[in-house]
Design goal:
Blueprint (H helix, E strand, L loop, with lengths): L12 H10 L8 H13 E5 L5 E8 L3 H10 L4 E8 L7 E8 L2 H10 L19 H12 E5 L5 E7 L2 H15 L14 E6 H11 L8 H9 L20 H10 L2 H8 L3 H12 L14
Antiparallel strand pairs: 1-2, 2-4, 3-4, 5-6, 6-7
Helix pairs in contact: 2-5, 9-10, 10-11
């Protein structure tokens, strides 16, 4: 695919000043830029070159090329979109497209907002500036998440991330929106967080994130819209909301040392107390801090 911007002219200071004066690049209160930055954090790569050279790139499957055209449209600096075909472990022929941006000012902007140079998967975090939160999260999920139906036919929204900060941010947002509690934990195989919302929680989250007219991958926007057609089968039980353990409850449980006795004192099930006691004793969850002295 040919570059969308013709020519290879070097960017001049006048070009930069003109662009900066007409467009506020990466204003994260703008829904489109918030989405774009979330996508870049999850799927982009910021590389240094010699001197002040460097490049911001995003490589995705060719079927999603339209989102890169939108990024190019939103960016007031010269950028290009190129295509390549190669063999991968998953397909003999894989077509991908790459958006590339070399502007020093643009790179400095996204770096300052929280896209580091080089390897970034564990270190990225939501920007500490005013931003459109749901658009940012939609960008992260479009890049590193999934939306659709499970093999059993249940709606789901999921995110796979190595970043504790991003995983926790999604959990906080979804808890306030849907009431669904999630406690993130890295899986033992590759140290990645897999945050999953199912059924009504997934429907509520998808409806909020993928609102009409939002910037997003078309296939995920279509999948999110399809979740509205699900209804809970008659007779399917709705599980009670998860009750998080408090420090004082952990102290009571450890002091009792018996899940049956603690269950009566705490108003919890014996099974719940048994599992919590096992996790505390085996280091699966942190021990509670000592009870503060009244003096």
């Amino acid at each position: 695919m040919a570059e969308r911007e013709p020519g290879a002219r070097q960017e001049t200071l006048d070009d930069v000043l003109t662009a900066a004066s007409t467009v506020r690049f990466m204003d994260l209160e703008d829904p489109n830029y918030a989405y774009m930055f979330g996508f870049l954090q999850a799927d982009g790569h910021l590389a240094r070159g010699t001197g002040q050279k460097g490049r911001l790139t995003v490589e995705i499957n060719a079927r999603d090329v339209e989102i890169l055209h939108e990024f190019q449209r939103l960016t007031p600096y010269n950028s290009s979109i190129t295509e390549r075909t190669r063999s991968t472990n998953f397909a003999a022929v894989h077509r991908s497209v790459t958006w590339s941006l070399c502007s020093l000012e643009a790179r400095a902007t996204v770096n300052r907002l929280g896209l580091p140079y080089g390897r970034k998967s564990r270190t990225i975090a939501p920007p500490r500036v005013p931003l459109s939160r749901r658009d940012y999260l939609r960008g992260v999920i479009d890049a590193d998440g999934s939306v659709g139906y499970t093999g059993q036919g249940f709606p789901f929204v999921s995110l796979t991330t190595a970043s504790t900060a991003v995983g926790a941010y999604l959990c906080r947002y979804a808890r306030k929106l849907t009431g669904a509690e999630r406690v993130i934990k890295r899986n033992a195989r590759d140290g990645i967080y897999n945050v999953v919302y199912m059924k009504e929680a997934a429907m509520g989250l998808a409806e909020d994130l993928y609102y009409p007219g939002c910037l997003s991958l078309e296939r995920k926007r279509t999948a999110a819209a399809s979740l509205t057609g699900w209804t809970r089968p008659a007779g399917m039980r709705i599980g009670p909301p998860r009750q998080r353990w408090k420090d004082w409850e952990d102290r009571v449980l450890l002091e009792a040392g018996d899940s049956g006795a603690a269950a009566q004192a705490l108003g919890r099930t014996e099974r719940s107390c048994h599992m919590r006691l096992w996790r505390l004793r085996n280091g699966r969850v942190p021990l509670p801090p000592p009870e503060p002295s009244p003096y």
